[in-house]
Amino acid sequence: WVCVAMNYRLSPRATWPGHIVDVKRAIAWVKANISDQGGDPSFVAITGGSAGGHLAALAALSINDPLFQPGFVDADTTVQAAVPFYGVYDFTNSGRADLSNLLTVSVMKSDLADDRDRWTAASPLHRVRPDAPPFFVVHGRNDVLVPVEDARGFVSALRGQSSSAVVFAELPGGQHGFDWFDSVRTRHVVGAVERFMAVVYGDVAAGD
Length: 208
Description:
This protein is of the alpha/beta class and 208 residues long. It has six helices and four strands, in the order αβαβααβαβα.
């Protein structure tokens, strides 16, 4: 694997959708340049944790959406797999008042009631589609920042519509950011992700 660590503008300085626009630009750059680094531009997978998990899921489900590609609408930003860790999948119903307030004040900088279409467009749950790429969703059962119910609902929606594989690892005792520290749990998750990616890559290579 050739890994690219992308960056994006952060709130509160940045306002949505600047974050996902940066991610889409990075994907476009990878597809245009990764072959020079020994990578395969026909197989791009995206992952991230927390806010990065939200962006990874949204990038995978907003295929070539011009709303998120200003100035580069002709660039191909499709990905072949997504592995979001403990992400937020529904901005319109995060399950936590403090998280919703953070989105209102620092990220969206608007009220949900007055700007629902924009909040909905930012929510991976509301972008689930039959042609979604394979997903491996990872979430800790004891996550006190982003409730695991958010991930369960997202996975259920994916499995109800997507024609691709949808894998869900709900980790007993797992907390938000569990993988920041080396542990038996983290090592097993890393191994599971590697196996998932190997299977998906093999399927793509075989034309399945």
